[in-house]
Write a structure and sequence with these properties.
The complex is a heterodimer of chains A (about 200) and B (about 300). With about 200 residues, chain A is an all-alpha fold. Chain A has twelve helices and no strands. The chains are: A mainly alpha (about 200), B alpha/beta (about 300). The complex binds iron/sulfur cluster (2 copies).
């Protein structure tokens, strides 16, 4: 039995906004469904992850979300449904990277579910499959190698000098590397290929 | 004059190297108010909260906690000018304080580099410093060139304000501190629909067209409300709504142009330091400031 189609019909009856009903029809057509309790348990163990359990699927988050407003396939309520049902396909869905982390949903959620945080955790799980924009990978590599998201150039330093702004030195990257070593992020970043393509903007 | 009040300045990446006129104007404004910003070379990228979190959340917490530890070692309150930096430091600080399991896990990593973070340091943004620490009365006394007949709309952006339990701002859905500052400069604050809507910038790495739809919508609503200019705090919002304004509003017509001021620029203008703004306008503003400055009576 297809878990998603079951829930589609359940929520179609309950959703009172026609816009939401349309979203379900568009969004719930996965090609493969993996139900992975390990995924849900991992989310629940992360900081703020257990707020997921408070979600009763009312859909207010979707009504408040500016991205759902312009893209009907983006539906935070449905994303949470997937996590609740331990469907890890969410981690490979490019839509999660169009969450603004604006927290409009969270301020309206009657249960204070940390919605953008749960989407962030899904993004983290998507890294191994390359569901990470190239720009995000570039910034992460730059943070690890220079301690800053951007390359600081000579002209930038000269401008600061001309403006009379103090020198800021160089971040202690060796220390950063030592503190982060056990996470193995540097090695992961070497091997990941982004499915987004492009060189990013940095 | 009495000894200046010092804050540990958290610089981040965007403001000091891409938009240094933010730092320049705000340092001068603060210095008039007897405040000095002291940088610490031990700080690194905060790390930025919109993409690095989704790459490795644990690494984000760890690097953020190391920055908190550096701040704690300075013994002063820390102030971040950038909303992204402020958000990260406030969130990580809040997590360290409220979640003891996470605090212990992160501190095990920091211990390897001889550091520890408690999360007890006070992390402020520029509105906390100006509105709460300095206070409107003191700022009012430093205004020498009131921005009369100018209407300004405040854009707060998301990460400066939410989540309220970590940011300690006045309100999550209708903050007013920036409007108060606009009023103190002599300008008229303009209210507009969906004031707390996002500028769209966080998703430009994954979906630039959508990010511009949001920016254009915001800019249109502000213009329709009758504002002469926008004032904001965040360098990412500035990049989106100022530097990229032309690209974002393509479909709104060629005559559309809405000047965007950094909060420090607005205050510098009202404090009689218009040179700081005028001299850097060409380099850091793509939307022409001249008509706005003329309306203010600057540069005549
Ligand atoms: S608003 Fe909250 S409770 Fe309702 S569906 Fe969204 S996350 Fe769940
Ligand atoms: S944080 Fe993400 S899901 Fe929530 S309202 Fe903003 S864009 Fe929508």
């Amino acid at each position: 039995m297809n878990i998603d189609s079951l829930n589609t019909s359940r929520f179609l009856r309950n959703d009172f906004k026609p816009r939401l009903a349309r979203c379900e029809l568009i969004a719930v057509t996965p090609t493969s469904i993996s139900s992975d309790l390990e995924f849900r348990n991992w989310i629940l163990k992360q900081p703020e992850g257990e707020t997921l359990l408070r979600c009763y699927q009312c859909g207010r988050c979707t009504s408040a979300c500016p991205i759902a407003e312009i893209d009907h396939s983006f539906n935070p309520r449905l994303f949470l449904e997937k996590v609740i049902l331990a469907d890890e396909s969410l981690a490979e869905n490019q839509l999660i990277w169009t969450c603004l982390t604006c927290e409009q949903c969270e301020v309206r959620c009657p249960e204070h579910v940390k919605i953008p945080q749960i989407l962030i955790l899904a993004k983290v799980r998507g890294l191994v499959s390359g569901n990470t924009p190239e720009t995000a990978l570039d910034r992460a590599r730059s943070i690890l190698s220079q301690g800053r998201t951007i390359q600081v150039s000579e002209p930038m330093l000269k401008t600061r000098d001309k403006m009379g702004l103090p020198s800021l030195g160089n971040p202690p990257v060796k220390q950063l590397a030592k503190a982060l070593k056990e996470l193995g992020l540097a090695e992961k970043l070497e091997n990941i290929k982004s499915i987004y393509g492009g060189d990013g903007d940095e | 004059m009495s000894k200046a009040i010092e804050y540990t300045y958290f610089p981040g990446c965007m403001i000091p190297f891409r938009l240094p006129h933010f730092e320049l104007t705000m340092r001068e404004v603060l210095s008039r108010l007897n405040i000095e910003l002291v940088a610490d070379e031990g700080h690194s990228c905060c790390p930025e909260p919109t993409t690095f979190t989704g790459v490795d959340f644990e690494a984000w917490l760890t690097v953020g906690a190391r920055n908190i530890a550096v701040s704690e070692s300075t013994g002063r309150d820390t102030m971040a000018l950038c909303s992204g930096c402020f958000h990260t430091l406030a969130m990580v600080g809040h997590t360290l304080q409220s979640d003891s399991k996470t605090r212990e896990r992160i501190n095990k990593r920091l211990k390897r580099i001889g550091m520890e973070a408690t999360g007890e340091v006070t992390v402020k943004n520029i509105l906390h410093v100006l509105h709460e620490d300095v206070g409107l009365d003191k700022i009012r006394k430093s205004i020498v060139q009131p921005l009369k007949d100018i209407s300004i709309a405040a854009h707060y952006g998301c990460h400066l304000v939410r989540p309220i339990e970590a940011t300690h701002m006045d309100d999550a859905e209708d903050p007013m501190w920036m409007e108060d500052l606009i009023e103190v400069t002599g300008a008229k604050p303009v209210d507009y629909p969906d004031k707390m809507a996002c500028c769209g910038a966080p998703i430009s790495p994954s979906d630039e067209p959508k990010s511009f739809v949001l920016a254009a919508d915001k800019l249109r609503k502000i213009r329709d409300a009758g504002a002469d200019a926008i004032v904001l705090v965040c360098p990412t919002c500035y990049t989106q709504m100022e530097m990229q304004q032309k690209k974002a509003i393509e479909h709104l017509g060629p005559e559309f142009s809405l000047p965007v001021l950094y909060l420090g620029e607005m205050m510098a203008l009202a404090m009689g330091m218009s040179d700081l703004v005028v001299n850097n306008a060409r380099r850091y503003h793509r939307v022409k400031l001249q008509p706005l400055l003329e309306k203010m009576g600057v540069g005549k």
